[in-house]
Amino acid sequence: MKKLLLVAMMAGFASTAAFAAAKCEVHPKDQWIKEADFKKKLEADGYTIKKFKVSGDCYEMYGKTKDGKKAEIYFDTVSGKAVKSEIGN
Prior knowledge:
Elements: H1 2-20, H2 35-44, E1 48-55, E2 58-64, E3 70-76, E4 82-87
Antiparallel strand pairs: 1-2, 2-3, 3-4
Domain PepSY: 5-86
Protein name: PepSY domain-containing protein
Pfam families: PepSY_2
């Protein structure tokens, strides 16, 4: 029974990790929007950035929306388009 529970827990963690990842299109780095420029655009659009990083081929932002909601958003590095977002309360 313990072994079955452990396997079920591990499967749950694997599915959570797979859900968390975003798939962004791969672009040559010289075509990417500069990080500093993109952060300025996000702030101009009303986002408050708590953490900003490169995640694989995406830009990833943790912070708040202009409405003050918690946000985790993955963006395409060339178009700046949101690829995946999780908006909370």
